[in-house]
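TA notes. Do not distribute before section.
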Amino acid sequence: MASEAKPAGEAAKPRTHEFLSICKSLVAGGVAGGVSRSAVAPLERLKILLQVQNSQNIKYNGTSQGLKYIWKTEGFRGLFKGNGTNCARIVPNSAVKFFSYEQALKGILWFYQQQPGNEEAQLTPILRLGAGACAGIIAMSATYPMDMVRGRLTVQTEASPRQYRGIYHALSTVFREEGPRALYKGWLPSVIGVIPYVGLNFALYESLKDWLIRSKPFGMGQDSELSVTTRLACGAAAGTVGQTVAYPLDVIRRRMQMVGWKDAAPVVAGEGKSIMEYSGMVDAFRKTVHHEGFGALYKGLVPNSVKVVPSIAIAFVSYEMVKDILGVEVRISH
């Protein structure tokens, strides 16, 4: 006897549920990105200023001095300059990144299990690393123009001859005066850097949590759940390793983004000087090391480390907490 067809309303319910689940996951990722980045906005701005300032015109020479100098010369608002643009970029970036990670992880695990002998395979750090790398590339590429203009908005000061008035003005000005390709300056080192950075963040965070739950050192994870403090520590460890490995590429990316900016702030070009031109990523590495030494590839690492530890930790934990509040599966990997 032929089975009865399901009513159209019942058939639509799974699709509606799946759509809502996707929306909730994207919202959770966006909230996590906005909260984590706003919490460390002053350190984010100082990091970029340290990365791009001219070696002959040093104004920022450390975390404490740099923050005090910004406060003295630009006030409280100066500490958060560029954060609106940053959040406008990081919210969709974070939403896409977390969602892409979950989908990539499912796809990679399914493909791996299709291979003979791997039918019962479980998630491994390598599979998580691959999924994290895919998620990072997708999210970075989708929002890169926002990151490019955010760097310029963050660097400009009251002394900048040209003032970008906001995100749209910066995007349209760069597009009009420097061409569409300028919006993707520094994209290659960004993509190369995001592979170990995001990949290691996800892989280490999830692997550390799984290890703590399985081994239960010091009585952790007795109920197959870790405390917020422990998860924050896992996120901090993952973020520290990831950003240290990828940091030189982040410095080169920032410097390449400034090329072509004729009215840059003096802190970038130096008084009466122009920004150094780079023909590509390799040339940027070569000139940076040649003129400023190998240590220049780690300019701003200290404030970035202070920033990354809470930022990555807050992002992961916020994501899981928001998903829990919205009634979505809490664990990032299934």
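Switch to the second chain here.
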Amino acid sequence: MQSLASASLSLLVESPEECQSRTAVAPLERMKILLQVQNPHNIKYNGTIQGLKYIWRTEGFRGLFKGNGTNCARIVPNSAVKFFSYEQASKGILHLYQQQTGNEDAQLTPVLRLGAGACAGIIAMSATYPMDMVRGRITVQTEKSPYQYRGMFHALTTVLKEEGPRALYKGWLPSVIGVVPYVGLNFAVYESLKDWLIKSRPFGLVQDSELSVTTRLACGAAAGTIGQTVAYPLDVIRRRMQMTGWSHAASVITGDGRGKVPLEYTGMIDAFRKTVRHEGFGALYKGLVPNSVKVVPSIALAFVSYEMVKDILGVEIRISD
């Protein structure tokens, strides 16, 4: 019941904050996706600052926030499912671990936390993946695109009608694989850093068993940096696979060298192979800079606000429990 209460609190309290934070960094999110799928033979965006200026000049202020509405709608169920799943998975894994070791006082190890975080990420991502897929397409389309999605529901119904239900899960496999290092490392690094700081108290940073908000923010930032850097190439491949088969795509998506014909991928490995072959290894990290600017503080705030809200409202189970 406490875990259910925690998830409900996350949905009611954290989701509005998530939507506000996502809206604040929406231009960076759109810039990241455009850089990820940009045709290397038809360069429009040479970097974050130049790209944002180009969007402002060609699409106006609203262009900076294209796709943000769908992203906010996705965050509400995603956040609740993720944190609820993490606490349930942690309890289940800890119970099995205690039974296996015969030690009722055993605690979760970093590897077990990694597993619990990965389970939570996969469940949450899978539940909301169709919304993420159409959000990517809405974000990529420009004013010059030959066809326009009018919104999330129009995009969902159009993709279903023209490409079939399987199209809503294009890029799902690299997303699942990427969840393991991304969400798993986020939780594992965050919790492990907290435990280490409390037990070792380096440089006098910790005076008692409770970490300050600033210290917890630093733990969250470190977790976000490590997780997103390791998993980023899979995110690039995910976005490129989402664009395949879209006959109305603008020429901004990655092409075959002629600038208009989008590459077709037979699967994740084929997408990796073609991306590296045509554009080099560095293409797997396109858009990393704007992504880092928005992701690292976002993850840090998400962890801290979640624990603080539960403390204020008296929910005893913490993420680390």
